[in-house]
């Protein structure tokens, strides 16, 4: 039986912005995994104040007032606030496969594993193409890359 993935409708579906609550980066001081997180009382993932924290070396930095713009890219991506390399990043199919955090990686892994992918039409709003899955690069969606993408995700899981 084929594995099936049903994309949540636009009121439930994840977006790339929702994955930015916790972003794993390479610590600029010790090269270990650090985290870029919102740092305000609201817990807003798009907070104007971000904090960079490395548990290994104790580095802590705050950053405020930076507006962000982020898109999938062929090159090694940078975290949109501190402009540091992403921790969950690997070359795959001649491109850069990256994730902000484990939740982001798990969502994409489930999507890639599925041989049958379905979208749902929202009864009020119709078709929606702003979800995390609609915005994936073509190489991740292509069936002939499935095995290579899943192997790359496995390598990143072991790294973590």
Question: Can you give a write-up of this model?
Answer:
It is a single chain. This protein is α+β, with helices and mostly antiparallel strands and 160 residues long. It has one domain (4-159). Helix content is 19%, strand content 22%. It contains three helices and eight strands. It has helices at 102-113, 138-141, 146-159; strands spanning 4-6, 23-26, 33-38, 49-53, 60-64, 88-92, 95-99, 116-118. A four-stranded antiparallel beta sheet has the order 2-3-4-5, with no helix packed on it. Strand 6 (88-92) and strand 7 form a beta hairpin. The chain starts with a strand and ends with a helix.
Notable traits:
single chain, 160 residues, alpha+beta, two-stranded parallel ribbon, 3 helices, 8 strands, 19% helix, 22% strand
Write a concise synopsis of the structure shown.
The protein is of the alpha+beta class and about 160 residues long.
**Mind telling me the C-alpha Rg?**
17 Å
What is the chains' assembly state?
Answer: single chain
Identify low-pLDDT runs. Answer: none
Number of helices: 3
Query: Could you say which structural class the secondary elements and strand pairing correspond to?
Result: alpha+beta
Helix content: 10-25%
> How many beta strands in the DSSP annotation?
8
What's the structural blueprint in terms of helices and strands?
Elements: E1 4-6, E2 23-26, E3 33-38, E4 49-53, E5 60-64, E6 88-92, E7 95-99, H1 102-113, E8 116-118, H2 138-141, H3 146-159
Parallel strand pairs: 1-8
Antiparallel strand pairs: 2-3, 3-4, 4-5, 6-7
Helix pairs in contact: 1-3
């Amino acid at each position: 039986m084929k594995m099936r993935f049903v994309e949540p409708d636009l009121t439930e579906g994840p977006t790339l912005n929702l994955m930015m609550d916790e972003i794993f980066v390479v610590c600029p001081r010790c090269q270990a995994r650090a985290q870029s997180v919102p740092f305000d009382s609201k817990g807003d993932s798009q907070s104007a104040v971000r904090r960079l924290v490395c548990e290994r070396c104790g580095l802590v930095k705050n950053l405020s007032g930076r507006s962000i713009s982020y898109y999938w890219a062929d090159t090694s991506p940078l975290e949109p606030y501190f402009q540091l390399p992403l921790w969950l990043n690997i070359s795959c199919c001649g491109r850069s496969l990256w994730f902000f955090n484990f939740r982001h990686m798990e969502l994409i892994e489930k999507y890639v594993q599925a041989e049958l992918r379905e979208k749902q039409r929202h009864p009020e709003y119709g078709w929606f193409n702003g979800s995390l899955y609609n915005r994936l690069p073509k190489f991740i969606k292509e069936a002939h890359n499935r095995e290579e993408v899943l192997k790359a995700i496995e390598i990143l899981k072991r790294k973590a």
